Amino acid sequence: TILHETISTRPQPLPARYFDTKTTEPISFFLSGLEELLSWQPDSNGDFNISAVPLAQRQPPLHSKRPRTLVCHDMRGGYLDDRFIQGSATRNPYVFYHWRYIDIFVYFSHHTVTIPPVCWTNAAHRNGVPVLGTFITEWTDGEKICEAFLSGGEEAYRAVSEQLARIAQHYRFDGWLVNIENTLSVSCVGNLPPFLRHLTAQVHRAVPGGLVIWYDSVLQNGTLKWQNGLNEENRVFFDACDGLFTNYNWKEENLESSRELAGPRRTDVYVGVDVFGRGDVIGGGFDTNKSLRLIRQYGLSAAIFAPGWVYEHLGEENFLQNENKFWGLLAEYLPTHSICTLPFATSFSLGMGNSRFMDGKEEEAGPWYDLSLQEIQPFYPEHEGRLSTSCYLQDAWCGGSSLRVQGIIPPGEERVATRLFSLQMPAPPKLFLTLLYKLEGPQPDEFTVALELTTWDSDTCHEGNVTSLPAHPLLPLTESNSRHHPRILAALPPSLAKLLAACNHGSKGWTSRCYELDLQDCSLRDLSLLVSRHQPSPKETSFTCLLGEVRVLDAASMTASPPQVQSLAASQFWWQESPEAEQLSLCLTLRWTFPPGRANCFRVFSLGARCHRGQTAPQLLGLASACLFRVVGLLVPRPVAGQSCRLELLVEPVLCDELPVDPDHWGRLMLVYSEP
């Protein structure tokens, strides 16, 4: 695309709801009051707030009848650095990454309509977790809002429920937590169950798998009185929606009576647990497991409120260590989830870091924070001090962090394994697996690192050849605990060329390993990391291994050529004077098209602006998780009168299987600009 633009330094403000007024960076937003909710309309300025990451499937599905875990995130009023849609330079930010252990994520604030910042929806969806916003009324203002939409006829409350469903559908999150924390008049409370039923029906219709959950607050007579469980006073609201989130001051008898009254819907009762331990509660802090133990004894679901306690109360200094400790204490009460689709690839990045890495090299120094770029997260198990996994920010293959596996191989034993991911899907006939790792410590040559893949036991499951690529005498993948040795390929099939090009590029101390696996009528079960020592030893041996990337790919899907970035266009130009007389500062919005679900993200580059012939090195401007990006504060040369300058912008798709895409499939835009 070639675009001609005339420079204008007249202010051209963008809507303050969607863009930061100082920088024009896109921001997440909320709605205050009934008027803002009812007047909301889809607006292309708000497109940055639309999640581009579809909700990943996983097993078991949400509607299975095992007890669930809901996390309600409430931190300092919300919309902190997470409101910057393209990220920020925040040092030591709060991140959540124990997605394998939870079922639902709620973003909570005290604004009337809390639309979850899109970075949270993207991170949760990539890991298979649905995200709910919050609709809240409270205090005297809340009473007025409720009178306005609940005291009249059905037309008023239906307008509210239809708007809430439209907002969830438009921004692609998954439903609402409804929290009416004010007393209600008789006419209001009479319309509350029909409102909840209508909202639930609208959300179910508009959002696949959508949810509406009611917070335990007002009673059926309109009194504001928290019940700390399900009873006859609040059952009418539970019956009208998908679940009840109870208040936190419960006792064991509340659990028992809630279970009895809920009957077959007992897993729709989410028993509230305040991690800050406020009021007369069981547990809290690092004793939250005491609450979980009791809740699970009664087969009920749990709603963990404000787990950001780890960050807010204990501080940011050792946050990642404390976070793993907190969730590690709860792990035995948190049913986990399995990945059930291919391709599967992750570099373990948390969506933050002290530097940004690419191919094992530091690409950009300095702190960054963008949860939209968080990758699929593994289990974080602790094995009685013998083995631990943690996030490591000092080195990475791609993104901001790697996964550090530290452990001890006991005396007389050859190897240890740690489960990274649970899988639950039919295996395709041919799989490719790749692994990038780095051994640390004084004697890395003592160890061999490999992947281990297990399948569910089956009479029909048959394993063919396991081949390591390129031909190295690697420890092979194992299936059903039986060992197979690699077979050297005499000639490489053409479909492997791309994979092998990626396989050979281990660098900066990183080692690349690739495997090919033939399976027939099998179902995949677990993907683990296996660390072995070459010689048995009467002594225990400690090791540290960094994992930079793991991929599990269906060979059949790799033959298709990658799609192309198309229709790259620029708009919303904002030219500003720069401190340097011969330069201008440029902001603009890029938009393009690409098949949904095919890209993990996009890397946006500038080839530099020039007013004379010549070439400049590409400069990374940032990463986009959707098909649009706001270029902010790019310094470009000012053309002299009668002259035009050129700025070339590139958009590189990063595919979900993380195989490289040839530059001729990237998007390219040439901006030719001149003075009036």
Give a nutshell description of this structure.
With 676 residues, this protein is α/β, with parallel strands linked by helices. Helix content is 17%, strand content 35%.
Tell me about this structure.
Helix 3 (139-150) packs across helix 5 (186-206) and helix 4 packs parallel to helix 5 (186-206). The protein has three domains: 2-10 and 564-674, Immunoglobulin-like; 33-336, Glycosidases (TIM Barrel, Alpha-Beta Barrel); 344-559, Jelly Rolls (Sandwich). Strand 8 (211-215), helix 6 and strand 9 (243-245) form a beta-alpha-beta unit. The protein has eleven helices and 33 strands. It starts with a strand and ends with a strand. Helix content is 17%, strand content 35%. The protein is of the alpha/beta class and 676 residues long. The strands form eight sheets. Strands 3-4-6-7-8-9-10-11 form an eight-stranded parallel β-barrel, surrounded by six helices. Strands 13, 16, 17, 19, 21, 24 and 26 form a seven-stranded antiparallel β-sheet that branches. It has a five-stranded mixed β-sheet with strand order 1-33-32-29-30, with no helix packed on it. Belongs to the glycosyl hydrolase 85 family. Residues 79-355 form the Cytosolic endo-beta-N-acetylglucosaminidase TIM barrel domain. It is an enzyme of class 3 (hydrolase). Endoglycosidase that releases N-glycans from glycoproteins by cleaving the beta-1,4-glycosidic bond in the N,N'-diacetylchitobiose core. Involved in the processing of free oligosaccharides in the cytosol. Its EC number is 3.2.1.96.
